[in-house]
Predict the structure.
Amino acid sequence: MFLNKNFIGKFFRSNSYFFFFAITVFISSCFLVAEELDSFLGPRVNKNTLWVGNQIVSSSISILVMAGHADSQDIPGEGTSGEAVALKGLSPMDPSMSDELFWNLKVRDNVVKVGKIKGLNINAYDPKKRTIIDENDSKTNWSIGSVHAAQGGYVLEIHFDSYGRDGLGSGLIPPLSRRLNNIDESLAQSFGRYPLFFRGGLGAPRREIRILEVGKLEGNLETSLRDQKMRQMTLDRITNKIVDAILRGITKQDNFNQMLQEGDIFLPNFYQ
Ligand SMILES: [Zn+2]
């Protein structure tokens, strides 16, 4: 069918209000969807950051996933008890561990399961002993993780952030390394970005272990994890967000083209 050009021009002009309206609705609905997808995790960390991950990684890189606080129960640093237990008086998910560890373990195992299905070279580490006093013991997350990282692997420790004022929100805490890579960048774009020297350089980042704060253990996120009908769906959403970000990072065979923000300090090593 042929349409006369004049007819098309006239048609758009006479319906311009309609098109303006339709385009506005379309664009705003895109933002609504984006907002909704992100908001199931609650707030993102909101801090000024300087880093960009730009190193290309091998698609067969060995990825080790650990559950934060898996070796520090009953000692300071055992993880947040979550809003439900601490403020609402609900029972812990498992009385032998903090609620954060309970969920860290669930996310770790789901990420490894789904990651393998999606073709990642990914495994979990569990120290088995839930209380190891000496952080340099060879079985701790930190010890095993730092050895794995030194051998060229990628190490990710899963965490949930504190509820209320103590927590900052979801995001990746990068390792203190000159070799921040495309997986770091992709996770930071999906979850948020903590500063490089967050809290003066935490124990894990000093050992080249990445910390992923999934979200604050409170509100809708915690409620939907605790709700038996919504639990698996929520774990799967978290898991897919993590696995897909890792996949985007390893399949990207050039640099993420991120511009420096105004006020950022130029860090040549991070730009190769
Ligand atoms: Zn934690």
User: Anything to note?
Assistant: Residues 22 and 229 are 37 Å apart (CA to CA). The pocket of zinc ion is lined by residues 68-69, 79, 100, 159 (CB under 6 Å). The chain has nine helices and five strands.
